[in-house]
Amino acid sequence: MLRGPDPFEVLGISNGAGREEAEEAFRRLAKRHHPDAGGDRNRFEAISAAIDHIRRNVAAASAASHPNFQGGFEHAFTRVFESMHRASRRQEHVRAERLRVDREINLSLDEAHRGGSFRLDPKAILCSGCKGHGLVECSGPVACPGCGGAGAYRQGKGIVSVQTSCQDCSGTGAVTWAQCSACEGRGALDGRYGLVTVPRGVDTGFSISCPYRGGNRDLRVTVFVRNDHLRSRRGDDLFVDLTIPIWDAALGCDVPIAGLAGESLNLKIAAGTPSGKCLKAKGKGINRMDGGRGDLFVVLKVEIPDASSGPLQKAFRDLKSRFGS
Description:
Layout: H1 7-11, H2 19-33, H3 41-64, H4 72-90, E1 99-108, H5 109-114, E2 116-119, E3 135-143, E4 152-155, E5 162-165, E6 174-179, E7 195-198, E8 207-210, E9 217-226, E10 231-234, E11 237-245, H6 246-251, E12 253-258, E13 264-269, E14 278-281, E15 296-303, H7 310-323
Parallel strand pairs: 1-9, 11-15
Antiparallel strand pairs: 2-7, 3-6, 4-5, 8-9, 10-11, 12-13, 14-15
């Protein structure tokens, strides 16, 4: 028995309307009432609950109508996928052509080191339904929208067509995500793109493929990593330029070094260290994408003061007279 408001009434559609009509009504209302767009939060939560209720009912009805349904929904779901795979051997799936949208993202050395979720557009109003990611997690596996659950699809036409393993589901035919209906996969409600998840350790030129980000579109994001004025990257190694005064180079000292992502290091400089000396801190470089870290190299530059006059001139002349050759 239904408790609370009727979901069809909340969405403004007739009782018993189909899934597509309900989804269309939800998208229209979500854009109007989304809190990030100035809408009412309670109203948005009500329409979200309504579409969730309809989706659950559709999924349950689909599972219960399976001719071999036994052992509950989970068992029925497994048998549905088995039948889908058998059908895929009899009839190959032809995937609809999808458009590709290319974007770029610029990251600092620290951001590339730690990875994470980053905004593609700083001005984008993130969708709260998917937290800006464009996709939402499903409660269980669902048929992959890219291959229709077949695990592969036919690409091309006529005699030049080839069978291709589906990359959206890695050939399994099932995924655990769905395109966010509130933002149509963009991750933002204003026509921009929201967040992209970047693995740690990426370098310039790395591409991230994001399927179904914006209707029937795939998003490809190319990463660019920028050096700063004191630090530069060479592969997974980090090079830092460090300037020290001449007396520290002569006497030796301990110098604090700011590592990556707020990491603090203490560098010990031996007495008599010359300018240009490169000191290595093993495993303190940039994260590697396959695990571990590169190394940190600190290149010293000894700063020589102007001793053409004043007390410094006298001090250096005294040193020269006592220890100079």
